Task: structure prediction
Amino acid sequence: MKYVDEYRDADTARALATKIAGLCEPGRRYSLMEICGGHTHTIYTHGLEDHLPESISLVHGPGCPVCVIPMGRVDDAIALAEQDDVIMTSFGDMMRVPGGRGSFFDSKAAGADIRMVYSPLDSLKIARKNPDKRVIFFAIGFETTTPSTAMTVLRAAAEGLDNFAVFCNHVRVTPAITAILSSPDLHLDGFVGPGHVSTVIGCEPYTYIPREHGKPIVVSGFEPLDILTSVYMLMQQFADGRCETENEYARVVPWAGNPKALGVIDRVMEVRDTFEWRGPGWIPESAMQLRAEYAAFDAERIYQVPGVRVADPKACQCGEVLRGAIKPWECKVFGTACTPETPIGTCMVSSEGACAAYYNFGRFSRSRVKEATSA
Amino acid sequence: MCLGIPGEVIELMAEHDDLAMVSVEGVKRAVNIGLLREDSDGPLDLSPGDWILIHVGFALSKIDEREAKASLEWLTGVGDAYTDELDALAASDIT
Result:
């Protein structure tokens, strides 16, 4: 029992698994989506599915911001980076994500000045040191990183730094959940809600999910026991006939989130009418853009962004993986043409992508191998 | 980029209102603590010895030491993505 050994408290985990099994109604199947890529990672690393009854399946959601960036958006960024006076800065996670014309790494090798940064604030320092260049930060992430970008824009404005701009790709988690709920090829019974995103937005924004869609959601921490506890809380809701938003991760996530962070986002950014996601496609009100007051820092207003649209490679089924319609191992190129060393799709690039997490950890699980070979 | 990394506050930096020197796995780095204030001029409930959860150079929440240790153990299990993030943090300078 290799995976049980990795629990900090194996007895507690076993007891939880037994309680979960006791809540299963005979003949009923339960499909629960974990939205966050970090949760996906824990589930595969610890083989959690092996310890759940067969009637409960965990479906992986679109909560990996790198994975949901469409190829055209990467091409747009590269078009910006290739201009003579531009230095593009990006988190390391984005560097290998393939666009239609290659990745940031490919563009950098071809001569574009693209630099990896840890924080958007690192980009400000680069801008101060290079007054004859414009530094464009490729801003990406769910609400976890959005306040950091907003704070950085405020700092640039306060300093009067006129050679710093943001190419904004910040996405919102709740519209993605709404889009998934309206997907015709997916039936879900409930959600394991994201942890770190919720430190910013809190739990209130999820309450429409049980209220309007009749699906419970439990915001969860990242430990194996957190996820098992969240699954137990969902199962208890089903057994009680309740449908609510609950917070398993209250030790870190306040119900109201981080009001300062929400205020900073609202000051600098507004919701876009629509945004394209790899997988679910165009989702209304699913991303942020800079407000007009901060147009001087908005790369999409300073430059003519090409607005490239690129279809995913035919062999790649990241879209279906991101919508939860198929499991990673059901993709035609999984583990053969597409591996972490030679990724075709985004889900294999990011360590939080469902495919990379499954490739690196999950495929050694006995029951998953059984499913994979019988699929 | 998605990883929340725990760090222990070493000192609040007198010359920068919004920065604290923080130890992350033994590496000392400046971290922006502006998002922990209720409002821009409000008091900051943060002292040396406190633990914070850091995302891309910003503290998003205060956590207790037990949670910090649990997060560090979880991050160690993440493997390359965590070591890459630590390398990026070590190369970062947001002062």
Q: What stands out?
A: The longest helix of chain A spans residues 224-240. Residues 1-7 of chain A have pLDDT under 50 and may be disordered.
